[in-house]
Amino acid sequence: MADKHVKAIERLQAEECVKNLRKHNFDADFFETGAEAAAWLKEHIPAGSTVGIGGSMTLSELGITDWLTGNPDYKFLDRYHTDDVQKVFRESFFADVYLMSSNAVTLDGCLYNVDANGNRVAALIYGPKKVYVICGVNKIVPTLDDAITRVQQIAAPANNVRLQRPNPCTEFGHCVKCVKDSSICNQFVITRRSGRQGRIHVLLVNEELGY
Ligand code: SF4
Prior knowledge:
This protein has 211 residues and is of the alpha/beta class. 37% of the residues lie in helices and 21% in strands. It contains eight helices and ten strands. The strands form two sheets. The chain has a six-stranded parallel sheet, with helices on both faces. Strand 5 and strand 6 form a beta hairpin. The protein starts with a helix and ends in a 6-residue tail after the last strand.
């Protein structure tokens, strides 16, 4: 865990990022802890909503995925308990609410994501009525170039290890821009603005969450 001085700096960066996200038509809020962000989210997803999610360690770490699983108050499009995950991905485009994290958030207020199937970035771009993007401060980077580097150096290799993909980054510890069929790096998406005011709502948390 970061010490209080590092946290103070990270808080300032997150607050600047929130201001810039708002300038880009996103809704955005800062939370000191993941627990506060999770509690806020649970309060703000209306009962009866259809909810889809993108694959996300952040959502797992915050207990959001477990909270939705089998929850009678929501129609959870449960990608983790299905015989037909592609059907769940397609149904998620019609969700009331979509939950995900972002691979990176630039200080000047853009989201950057790399996807394998494209279902997550597709839902971010269009479909679900409301998209909540939950990110720890570890996802904040100065520029889009840094976002690309972050994914190549940390997010994608770590996800390859987690998913047990036989890709070279799991041996080298960083991306070597492979073109293997097993690559998880197929779609590279920069979201500069929320096209519809507030459709995308970013929750920035002053903790390290996911990767
Ligand atoms: S492009 Fe290939 S080597 Fe690079 S992170 Fe993705 S899967 Fe790994």
